[in-house]
Amino acid sequence: MSSVMISYRNLVVVFFLFCIVVLPACKQLDTFEFNQAIPNHAWQSNTKLKGSFNIEDTAALYNLSIVLRHTDAYSFNNIWLNVGLQFPNDTMQLKKVNLALGDDANGWEGIGIDDIWELRKKLNTQPIHFNKKGIYHFEFSHIMREDPLQQIVSVGLRVDKIPE
């Protein structure tokens, strides 16, 4: 009888560990990320990178981040961008953003693999509340003096729903 109890206890322990470790991993991630490659790593100032994402949960809070990839040969420590966001049935709202990519003393920010650097920077200082369900549109364009802007690999937007 005791061997049956030990097996039953072991089964309960294994089931309990399964529930704690595996089931939370099955949760759907509430993240959207869109990245657009820049042809020949030369971004023309009149080329707007555009995309859209859907918001269903208007009670949630979100973080918005720019995802930018550049090569080690990029000539500047920053990039100036026009970032546009359009709420459903509204007009595009543009914001100028000066995105620091690194400095001479510390090098590039972000994660580097070979000669490509990826940087993710939040656009918002506080979480954002989207008050309308629907499709949101966004666009990026650079407003640097160099045109085309060399050594930019891709630019994108990441939308993260903040867990409750």
Q: Report the CATH topology name.
A: Jelly Rolls
Helical percentage: 10-25%
Please count the helical segments: 1
Query: Based on CA inertia axes, which overall geometry fits?
Result: globular
**Low-pLDDT residue spans:** none
Q: How far apart are the termini?
A: 46 Å
- Average pLDDT, all residues: 87
CATH architecture: Sandwich
Kindly name the structural category.
mainly beta
Kindly estimate the percentage of residues that lie in beta strands according to DSSP: over 45%
Strand segment count? 13
C-alpha Rg (nearest Å)? 22 Å
CATH class division: Mainly Beta
Number of domains: 1
Instruction: Sketch the major β-sheet.
Output: 5 strands, antiparallel
User: Looking across the biggest beta sheet, what order are the strands in?
Assistant: 1-13-4-10-9
Return the string of H and E elements: HEEEEEEEEEEEEE
Write the layout of secondary structure elements.
Blueprint: H1 2-25, E1 31-37, E2 42-43, E3 49-55, E4 62-71, E5 78-86, E6 93-100, E7 102-103, E8 107-108, E9 111-113, E10 116-122, E11 134-142, E12 149-150, E13 152-161
Antiparallel strand pairs: 1-13, 2-12, 3-11, 4-10, 4-13, 5-6, 5-11, 7-8, 9-10
In short:
The chain has 164 residues and is mainly beta.
Pick out its properties.
164 residues, mainly beta, Jelly Rolls, five-stranded antiparallel sheet, four-stranded antiparallel sheet, 1 helix, 13 strands, 48% strand, globular
